[in-house]
Amino acid sequence: MTVSKRRKALAAASAVLGGVLVLSACGGGDDDGDKADGKNGGGQSQVDKSAAEKASAARIKIAPENGSNAASINNAGQVSVSKGSLTAVTLTASDGTKIPGAFSADKTSWKPSDQLERATTYKVNATAKDGDGRVAHENGTFTTVSPQNSFIGNFTPEDGSTVGVGMPVSINFDKAITEKDKKAVQAGIKVSSSSNQEVVGHWFGNQRLDFRPEQYWQAGSTVSLKLDLDGVEGADGVFGVQQKTVTFKIGRSQVSTVDAQSKTMKVERDGKVVKTIPISAGSPENKTYEGQMVISEKYKQTRMDGSTVGFTDDDGKGEYDIKDVPHAMRLSNSGTFIHGNYWGSPSIFGSVNTSHGCVGLQDAKGANNPNTNGAWFYDNSMIGDVVVVKNTGDKTVQPDNGLNGWNLSWDQWKQGSAL
Asked: What's the number of CA atoms in the CB half-sphere (13 Å) around residue 84?
């Protein structure tokens, strides 16, 4: 072999050996190589083993998972630990607000004390220790559901209130519930009474769901409304966020019957007539709705403008505009009230029907005379009391015009349930 050829062969062999050495180095070496390396106490595997032995046994879990979107505003941000106890948890909103929370008695869990805000990003930092005092850390970030992708139900009556025997539970959703999702939404709402009356829900369209028993609520009973809608789908990609329980009390039973023919109203309380009041109902041209109506609002004084309910003259102005109607109580959404009347002659009450569809009681301007019939009825009535109107010659009020679902038979009512 010539010198030139010998040099080329050695160079090639050197290159191959060099490649082997490089590949061996990238592979991390074999066991023998690790044992031979005395500088790191036995090689990388020995370092990893030593670190694992020193690691905390505590295992922290944050719910929801890191990076979650559309998280619950009721249950997100909760932290738990196994094989240890939590020592510190911070939950911080994207604007820097720190959310208060509480540990369980055994320090194995933590949850926020306040409901979270929608469409907000939160960061969680948690620390725990195991039985040997070794520390573990966990961090996470999540974003709560947006208003566009969630729905809520505005309900009446209010928590802690006392109402009349005719008061239904009425829930108005801020977004339409699709037909396919009505069953799940209704299943997430429970209404029960201490009187053990059967309570059934009835849908009025896609955004209103009312609950009532077959007969009026029993006086003195307590009604509970439980909303368990968190995560329930109401439409494609739109989920409920409410998780709460509301209770209200049913007061004494008061049902008042307006007879437009005799032009009187009999007020019955707990089955006994306590007062008979002369009234003036709707005129023959503007008859008052018939049916069972529930008082939904009370105003000591309010403005009544005919133009808002379709009573206008040829110039488009309201046929009436009374800015201080005393002792007004709403019976329908379309404008039917039972209210005081100071502008009519005292002789009309009990003798002639003159109104535009409301039921009028004699009263005084300013609503400050407690001796008038208007003041007495106002002071002795509450939201949820029933006013039955008959013999007007008009049609029965629609069940969804106000809180007037009692005008449906029990069979009709149950047919409107999604369950």
From this structure: 24
